[in-house]
Specification:
Blueprint: E1 8-9, E2 12-13, H1 21-41, H2 50-70, H3 72-87, H4 93-119, H5 123-147, H6 150-153, H7 161-189
Antiparallel strand pairs: 1-2
Helix pairs in contact: 1-2, 1-7, 4-5, 5-7
Length: 194
């Protein structure tokens, strides 16, 4: 395994992963959307679970924004490769990766269904946030498939970078706008006093 003391592991090293304009724009979009979610969480709302929903979403966006530049998914991939070598199951690594990606996709579907069931009564107020969540989940699944080389395994072309950027930025934008609209609605209902 790479020297973790120097904050490296295989091909991964601690540092800025995407210093491009779009890399930073996406990171800022995640941070702004997270801030809006956390602010909106503290406004009073008529639906049950309002605060928990928006705090969880805000924290998730902060994590995704940090990961956008720090690439912790590559660190986990490198650790997995090193474990496969050290424990002698390197030849079965592909099968393990497919099982991991399939398990990840199933967990994501379960998460989406759980979020929907928990908050379906607030659908009218949160539909844009749900759209953003779906876009981000699609991005994360595509990214996981790329990391584990699922595209190469099935001889598929990975999606274009622009599509991944649209999913990622679009998801953060939908969630941020949803929170902003919620804040505006609360301020209007409360007469601008909150």
């Amino acid at each position: 395994m790479g020297t973790l003391g120097a904050l490296t592991c295989g091909a991964w090293k601690l540092g800025i992963g995407d210093p491009s304009f779009w890399g930073w724009a996406t990171t800022v979009a995640f941070a702004a959307a997270a801030l809006l979610c956390l602010v909106y969480a503290y406004y009073p709302a008529p639906d049950k679970g309002h605060r928990g929903f928006w705090i969880t979403l805000g924290i998730a966006l902060l994590v995704l924004g940090a990961n956008r530049q720090l690439d912790f998914q590559w660190l986990m991939h490198e650790i997995g490769k090193e474990m496969a070598k050290a424990q002698g199951w390197s030849s079965k690594r592909r099968a393990v990766e497919i099982v991991l990606v399939a398990g990840f996709v199933m967990a994501v579907v379960f998460l989406l269904v759980s979020v929907w069931r928990a908050a379906h009564r607030a659908w009218r107020r949160r539909w844009l946030a749900f759209c953003g969540i779906v876009l981000l989940v699609a991005f994360v699944v595509l990214r996981a498939m790329r990391i584990h080389e699922v595209y190469a395994l099935f001889n598929l072309e990975p999606p274009a970078r622009w599509l991944r950027t649209v999913l990622e930025c679009g998801g953060a934008l939908c969630i941020g706008v949803s929170a902003m609209l919620g804040i505006a609605d609360c301020r209007k209902r409360l007469g601008g006093t909150f």
